[in-house]
Design brief:
The chain is an alpha+beta fold. 68% of the residues lie in helices and 10% in strands.
């Protein structure tokens, strides 16, 4: 009895029998060779299409500028740290203000700025991307941003200078009070010196009177004729004169002490006034050494487009298309077998 079995399908005639879960290298090569035109032509079409699409897209240029934040020339400390200024720009805090400054309808001007702090310089690089026909708008937008940054910086500087002004006013008031006290002390010293001078004159007069009395007593003793009443009167006069001279000496001593104290106080106040004057000069210098934001590089357009990466996009598209059509070939082959 003859065993008549149906002929295997065409696909099974071309390939050796194997389990569905096992795929050897020759099977893979046969599938790739069978569908080579699909893979090559499909990949080529996708790659060319991607290149054409990229080339037809408008070119994008970069508008850039470099600024240096405000700082004090004395301490070289920034009024506002560069990292903080850059973070504000990067976060888009100023974008809406720039839009309103450029166009009545803010939606007509899509603006986004990027920024970064340049290493070891403290300067900030500001960039934005614009289409070829909008580069002039990009330059103007960057200028408006720089103007806004400068205005905000000026406001901060004014606050800083206001602090300096308050300190200067306080020091100036202190100086006026010290100068008034110094003048009072000078007047006191003048009065003391005048009183001292008057006491010195009286002391000299008392000494001269004592000398005259002593001469009279000596003359009486030499004559040998002593009048008891006269001698008694002269003795009383000598005692009174000595007492008066002692009082004058004590008052003169007190005046000298008071004059020295007044002079020392005058010197102290003068030194304090000079110290405050020096502090005032320092505050005025520091106030004048606060500089506003500096524009290092004015806004400029990059000489070449920055976003037209035709080669990279085309290569990536070709690789993706190649994998896609290879998988598509195996998928179609699998469907045909079943």
């Amino acid at each position: 009895m003859n065993d008549h079995r149906p002929a295997p399908p065409q696909d099974q005639q071309n390939y050796p029998p194997h389990d569905e879960d096992e795929i050897n290298l020759m099977d893979l090569l046969r599938v790739l060779w069978k569908w080579k035109w699909l893979i090559v032509v499909g990949t080529l079409i996708c790659t060319v299409a991607a290149a054409l699409i990229i080339m037809q897209r408008p070119k994008v240029y970069e508008v850039s500028a470099i600024i240096e934040p405000a700082k004090s020339q004395k301490s070289l400390a920034y009024i506002e740290p560069p990292d903080q200024v850059s973070a504000k720009i990067q976060a888009g805090i100023y974008n809406e203000r720039v839009r309103k400054a450029l166009a009545p309808d803010p939606m007509k001007a899509g603006i986004a700025f990027a920024s970064r702090v340049l290493k070891e310089t403290g300067m900030i690089a500001i960039t934005s991307q614009w289409r070829e026909k909008e580069t002039d708008l990009g330059v103007e937008a960057t200028r408006r941003l720089l103007g806004i940054l400068s205005d905000d910086c000026s406001a901060v500087i004014e606050l800083k200078k206001g602090d300096y002004n308050r300190q200067i006013d306080m020091k100036a008031n202190d100086l006026k009070e010290i100068q008034k006290t110094l003048q009072v002390q000078q007047d006191i010293l003048s009065v003391v010196l005048k009183r001292k001078e008057a006491l010195s004159v009286k002391t000299e007069e008392a000494k001269r009177n004592n000398d005259r009395i002593y001469k009279q007593i000596d003359a009486i003793n030499e004559n040998g004729s002593i009048d008891t009443g006269v001698f008694l009167a002269l003795s009383i006069t000598v005692q009174q004169s000595n007492s008066y001279s002692g009082q004058l000496d004590r008052q003169l001593y007190d005046m000298e002490i008071e004059a020295k104290k007044a002079d020392i106080e005058k010197i102290r106040l003068a030194m304090l006034a000079n110290t405050i004057k020096g502090e005032l000069n320092t505050l005025n210098k520091e106030k004048g050494m606060i500089s506003n934001m500096a524009i290092i590089n004015e806004p400029e357009v990059s000489p070449r487009p920055i976003s037209q990466k035709t080669k990279q996009v085309t290569l990536f598209t070709g690789i993706v298309a190649l994998f896609f059509f290879v998988l598509l070939a195996f998928f179609i082959e699998k469907i045909k077998r079943r």
